[in-house]
Fold:
Amino acid sequence: MCHFIAFGQKPAKKGFWTANLALSEGVYLPFYMLYNEQKGEVIVINDEEQITLELVEKNSDSTVYEFTSFNTQIVLKSIQKKKISGYFYNKDRKSHPIIPLEGTFGGKKVNCKSVKTTHDISGKWKTSFSAFTPGEYPAIGLFNQTKKGRVTGTFLTETGDYRYLSGNMIGNELTLGCFDGSHAFLFTGNLINSNLSGTFYSGSHWKTNWIAQRDSNFTLANPKEITFLKDGAEIKFTKPDTTGQLVHFPNPHYRGKVVIIQLIGTWCPNCLDETNYFKALHEKYNEAGLEILAIGYETPEKYSEQAERIKNYTYKKGVPYPILVGGIASKGLASQDFNMLNSISSFPTSIFINRKGEVVQIHTGFNGPGTGEIYRQFVKDTNRLVERLLNE
Structure:
């Protein structure tokens, strides 16, 4: 797997480290670590994604780094020069908030483990998670494999993608993973009679089965059709901003504008992917009449803490448009707030409104840059939609 982290505990050697998160007994999510002595940075790389952590505390026996996008940390303790231990800490989780971590020094850049394999899983796979249970849900596995068995790709679901995954195919055994500060995902599987089956671990708190078979024609529900406006209804809501001032929609500021209403959570990686795209969209089209208004549904229970999360997110991520405070992170609450829709089934959900105040599209979930061409095509299509609405 190709994950890299850097850290700055002084007895530790500068360079690349090999580490594991212990998800459960005998189950480990591997990643790599890199220490930048001059900058004192932690950098996480998931395949093509680079994530820089922020040093927040340095003690005599440990160093604490924070994922700036999420309420999570890595706490590292140096055992000796070539061995470290510590833990990943998700401060929002009430159960299983800590995952132990151990690492050893690699000395130089550690290449992803690779061996020759006779099995190539490159392509599109019809997938079911929690197969044969009441909670079963569909997905699409998209994989690319090298001749030496390195695998990259992701899973698409009807609420978004599982972002950048990487790992290996060794013999008939598949291992894929992602560690981005919110997700600690591990997928293990076996290829038997041209079918894949295995276990999906999400941190140390949850696991389920998954099965897959090649199917180049399989599709998921159209994200533009999952959520819809009820007949005769219109988008109306009132929510406070981060200062406590109530904001009503619609209001004169948005009259005659093309508006995107974005329902997100600052804890949500797919929402961050969408926000990064919307930042570029806002920069390109705001002067022509595009406005974006987001509502954040947050993990803390108190308004003051929810507002603080949104303030920090807006500042650290450079979000140029307002994010109102929606309340607790609940699709049920969002569905109540937007009862003019059939339901809110995913964060993010985005509502596109034309200059006349009419809803022209509602997009459920988000498939980000980890999906490659799917993401690039979405960007092209959405840019064209916004341009058309601005020119109407």
